[in-house]
Design goal:
There is one protein chain. The protein is an all-alpha fold. It has helices spanning 2-14, 26-32, 34-56, 64-75, 95-108, 112-135, 152-160, 165-180, 184-195, 205-215, 218-240, 244-251, 271-274, 277-299, 306-322, 327-330, 335-338, 344-360, 377-383, 388-402, 409-428, and strands at 85-86, 89-90. It has a two-stranded antiparallel ribbon with strand order 1-2. A hairpin with a 2-residue loop joins strand 1 and strand 2 (89-90). Helix 10 packs antiparallel against helix 18 (344-360). The longest helix is centred in the N-terminal third of the chain and has 24 residues, at 112-135. The protein starts with a helix and ends in a 22-residue tail after the last helix. Its EC number is 2.4.1.258. The chain crosses the membrane at residues 36-59, 113-135, 156-181, 187-211, 218-241, 278-297, 346-366, 386-405, 412-430.
Length: 450
């Protein structure tokens, strides 16, 4: 046997072959993996497309001048949110919006064309992060990744309209990548930054809370949530110190009533009903019920349901506090021993479905709001049990409805029907097992063999 091994090694050396396993290079991965090569191709092709759009498609003036007016007031020293206004009305976004657009005004001088270039770069960075998120799962086939770059409306929102939704969406995707790598504290900080640009990101908060409770113990959840809260406090401090009521009431106003004309999803609802408090309460109730039902029967199905999961968490908390001798010693450091690794599919499915439920139940979706969930559509469609041709028809239907301007009774009704069909398909989907192989944590009774 020794002679045979020696001969094998000699033959390997003589033949000039290295038997050691090497990690394939990035180029090798791109060539050998159709999903990676498809993602790279989509990114490069879209970069060219964005350049052509900026060069040849006329810019559409909507909110840019209002943004610049609001930023100019802030840079001029105004800290009263009730006095920061533009030609489209008062400022209604949290403070992170002002800081980002102040930086954009400084770099571009308030000019549109250089701002379009910045937003073009932002679009490609965001698309790259989205592709990375999709590559972390095996839900989509390689060819379906091209759907992520086929939206006319999304290109318009980013490089022809320059909406702040673009930054909120990009920051959210950055936070989601952190969650996929189990960096919950970092992800919460970035997530809070996204909320500081536009509050729609809070639609992801309910499933995110469940994920945090699954991934960490209560001390980890509290510390991560505290980091997110500190971000909001620090960003809003210059406005909250002199005018706290004006800042909180305007930057975090959950009771805004949008103009019926701009509604993409509920244009078929008569305007008196659309603006009524009863309709708002009905949609809110539908939102909460859907979240609770999905949480109980889908997101927490492997834990015995939502109530069983929450009861187990409460029991853990009681046990921790009933043993005071362990509290000073372990405290927040005990978080690691109780952490669990969540599968990428479980994280993405929960976050995307939770946000989609919020979109379905939103009283008014404006055209720029499409960026809230477009990038989740291919994933959601492939999570349904529908055949591929049905998924593609639904994708095209949603895109078509968002490109009809102005929206009408038929387009908004068709959009709602498509949303409900997708939601029904997500309900029919089999819940994935949430936890990865627990490599970090070993059973408590495991002992080293003597």
């Amino acid at each position: 046997m020794p002679r045979h091994n020696s001969a094998a090694r000699s033959g390997s050396v003589a033949g000039g072959h290295n038997t050691a396993t090497k990690e394939p290079s990035f180029i090798g991965k791109v060539i050998n993996n159709p999903k990676i090569s498809s993602a790279v191709a989509v990114l490069l092709a879209d970069a060219i497309l964005v350049s052509l759009i900026i060069a040849y498609v006329p810019y559409t003036k909507i909110d840019w001048d209002a943004y610049m007016s609001q930023v100019s007031g802030f840079l001029g020293g105004e800290r009263d949110y009730s006095k920061l206004k533009g030609d489209t009305g008062p400022l209604v976004y949290p403070a992170g919006f002002l800081y980002i657009y102040s930086a954009i005004q400084y770099v571009t001088g308030g000019e549109v064309y250089p701002a379009q270039i910045l937003f073009g770069i932002l679009y490609i960075v965001n698309l790259g992060m989205v592709l990375l998120i999709y590559l972390k799962t095996n839900v989509l086939p390689w060819w379906a990744l091209c759907l992520l770059s086929l939206s006319k409306r999304l290109h318009s929102i980013f490089v022809l309209r320059l909406f702040n939704d673009c930054f909120a969406t990009t920051l959210f995707h950055a936070s989601l990548i952190s969650f996929l790598y189990q960096k919950w504290h970092l992800g919460l900080i970035i997530f809070s930054g996204a909320v500081s640009v536009k509050m729609n990101v809070l639609l992801f908060a309910p499933p995110l809370l469940l994920l945090l409770l699954k991934a960490m113990d209560i001390f980890g959840v509290i510390s991560a949530g505290s980091g997110a809260a500190i971000v909001q406090i620090l960003l809003g401090l210059p406005f909250m110190l002199p005018h706290p009521v004006e800042y909180i009431s305007r930057a975090f106003n959950l009771g805004r009533v949008f103009i019926h004309f701009w509604s993409v999803n509920f244009k078929f609802v008569p305007e008196p009903v659309f603006v009524s408090k009863g309709f708002a309460l009905f949609l809110l109730a539908a939102h909460l019920i859907l979240l609770a039902v999905f949480a109980h029967y889908r997101w927490c199905s492997h834990e015995g349901g939502l109530f069983s999961f929450l009861h187990s968490k409460l029991t853990q908390i009681k046990l921790r506090f009933s043993n005071p001798s362990s509290f000073p010693l372990r405290g927040f450091n005990g978080q690691k021993s109780n952490s669990r690794v969540l599968k990428a599919e479980h994280i993405i499915t929960g976050m995307f479905v939770g946000n989609f439920i919020g979109v379905v139940c939103a009283r008014s979706l404006h055209y720029q709001f499409y960026s809230w969930y477009f990038y989740t559509l291919p994933y959601l469609l492939w999570r349904t049990p529908f055949p591929t041709w049905c998924r593609l028809i639904l994708f095209v239907t949603v895109e078509l409805c968002w490109n009809i301007y102005p929206s009408n009774v038929y387009s908004s009704m068709l959009l709602l029907v498509a949303h409900l069909i997708i939601l029904g398909g997500l309900w029919m989907a089999t819940p994935e097992y949430p936890y990865a192989e627990n490599t970090n944590n070993k059973p408590a009774n495991t002992k080293k063999a003597s």
